[in-house]
Amino acid sequence: MSGYFTEEIPAEELTRQMEVARGVGDSVRALVAATVVTDVDEDDVIEAQRLIDAATAILERRRIDSSFGIRFNSDGRQRNWGNAVEGIRNPVAPPVEFEAGDDRVWAEFSLGPQYEGPPGLVHGGVIALILDQVLGHAAVHAGAPGMTGTLSIRYRQGTKLGSMRTEAWIDRTEGVKTFAKGQISTADGICAEAEGIFIMPRWARELDIDRRSRIGDA
Amino acid sequence: MSGYFTEEIPAEELTRQMEVARGVGDSVRALVAATVVTDVDEDDVIEAQRLIDAATAILERRRIDSSFGIRFNSDGRQRNWGNAVEGIRNPVAPPVEFEAGDDRVWAEFSLGPQYEGPPGLVHGGVIALILDQVLGHAAVHAGAPGMTGTLSIRYRQGTKLGSMRTEAWIDRTEGVKTFAKGQISTADGICAEAEGIFIMPRWARELDIDRRSRIGDA
User: Fold this and answer.
1) In a domain, B13, yes or no
2) Do A44 and B24 touch (CB under 8 A)?
3) How much is the pTM?
4) What is the CATH number of the domain that holds A120?
5) For residue B54, which residues of chain A lie inside 8 Å, CB to CB?
6) Per the structure, how many domains does chain A have?
7) Closest by alpha carbon to B118, among A186, A2, A129?
8) Closest residue in A to B86 (Cα–Cα)
9) What ipTM was estimated for this complex?
10) Could you read off the pLDDT of B95-146 as tens digits, one per residue?
């Protein structure tokens, strides 16, 4: 399948690469937030822009083909650095780091001004973005990976920018369909609830459940 | 309402500010994409990171309060530079620029590697993010602004990263509820369809329909 890669990077080297990736990812994230809320004069913006363009020119000296894809290393680790929610080297991603328990997956994270929709609130579509990812994780964790078939979000109240929590669990399965539910909550309580149906792809149906549940491990 | 501001910026100066804003926004967008797909050595990454951090330090010399909010200028223009889908100075946003016709709103745009979910495909949650915005625009264009009550996405096929089109229209209204529908399509056809219910806020119910339909004009 195109976009999936297998690699053989020595474990210590991969760990170092991940530190470097996270470092530059976090630097660009800080720049993204600063760009949204800056109030400096035009001269300062132009000066900053020169430095930004110079950094881009360095990073563009060599690039991978089209997108990061998903890379499986020989030591068992998986890299999805380009993922819009979790990618450690994707500045669009917060990134959200998920944890898994017996019956649910969750994450606690913070969203800054670059995720705004209504003033001071998280964009409703960003809420959907996070929920799509956490519901998908719940499906993977239950041994039922798949692509989203349908996703429904019910918005109960505005989600203030800042700290929040998301969690998801499996409601039920019906054949190749897995029904997941989840929510996002802040200090104000539950802000949005979601239901998602995940369809197990043909290639996964032939794997046993133990192998399927390991697919999501980062 | 907090986060909404009225301003009196001379029209010519505001136009200049918008050019500067778009310029730095586009520069950071290019950096975001380069960060995702770079394949340069660690030394080059560290060098780029120094430039990035220096740019951030300049932009952080002065900042607005917490988030950009929505700003209404005395010349009738509205600024939502922090919006996660449309904000010209928000590097998380592509940005998507919408057009409006008699009975629908639409946009044509391109999504790069920073919006990846499954390898080579747009993240299902980014699909939801775009659809939430275009459905909301359809509601505003019809004179029925509101916050999203519910959003449902049906994913028909993967959306390849690259060029795509989105459109939305009003299906019907029931009292304070507006039912909008929309889709995202590529050269492969319709990739996702959405339905959204928008609830008109109390403050808007008291405005006449002409004033309500102007609220969304950028």
Assistant:
1) yes
2) no
3) 0.93
4) 3.10.129.10
5) 51
6) 2
7) A2
8) A117
9) 0.93
10) 999 999 989 999 999 999 999 999 999 999 999 999 999 999 999 898 887 7
